[in-house]
Amino acid sequence: MASAAVAVPASIEARSGAQCAVPETGLGQPELLSRATNLLDNGQDININIVMHFCCSAGEKCPRDEIAQAEIELMNSFVSSARITFSLEAVKHIDNTKCKSDINRWDDMLDLITDVRQGDASTLNIVYVQGNRGDGTKGVCSQPRLGARLSDQALAMDGCVVAMDTLPEGNDGKDPVYPAITIHEAGHWLSLDHTVGDNGNVMTSNLLEKTEYSFNEVQLKQMRQKAVERLEQSNLVESDEPPAPRPSKPAPAAVPGDAWVWMHKK
Q1: Domain span holding position 61
Q2: What is the CATH number of the domain that holds 224?
Q3: Does the residue 74 lie in any domain?
Q4: How many domains does the chain have?
Q5: Closest by alpha carbon to 234, among 47, 32, 41?
Q6: Which residue from 182, 186, 220 is spatially nearest to 82, judged by alpha carbons?
Q7: Where is this region: Disordered (predicted)?
Q8: Which of 34, 87, 152, 160 is the most buried (most CB within 10 A)?
């Protein structure tokens, strides 16, 4: 398994808005799609189950369960044209010592996902934490490449961590400043890279306030193909083996093997 961790460059940290930084594969979307030769996408409706974990320490106000469903409906508004549906499988309220860590502490985020995740390769786990409010790093997610099968060790660390103030009503009861964060991270979970030169695309590396975002047709096709891959692997469950060692320095993941670019920051 190839692994990679990415530190946010100072130039990105200094910008306003919500940012994301990850090493690129060097392959364009059409080339990535051409490598996926064994996928069975016949245009069927695709359903992805989501488990949302609200990370709230004792005494902290936690979002209502209804907020989770509101976020699901927002996510679906971005992908309905591709016949992809996200469904809320469960809402979990957790209190973990790693919940107070900054999202930039990627080792802690890996531990957090490993501690709480549930389901199989087709289940998207999202942990919402109360830190990282305002501008800056807003999320982190696993990003298996298109055509890469998840090993059981990679699956144990599969999921996203997102700042809680991006949820509906998460901005002190008001609409969030950056409502597209969760669907952006879900795009990475379904293998998408960042876009360049299209500031209205969900996968831009710098999301801004009061901006409408959407996926393009190529991205939606790629998301469908990765979703099919994940559904085909739905019988893959975590083993009792310890997680693979985490890299000590950034390294781009190989393609199309069991690639794993985890530190996807927003």
Answers
A1: 46-237
A2: 3.40.390.10
A3: yes
A4: 1
A5: 47
A6: 220
A7: 236-258
A8: 160
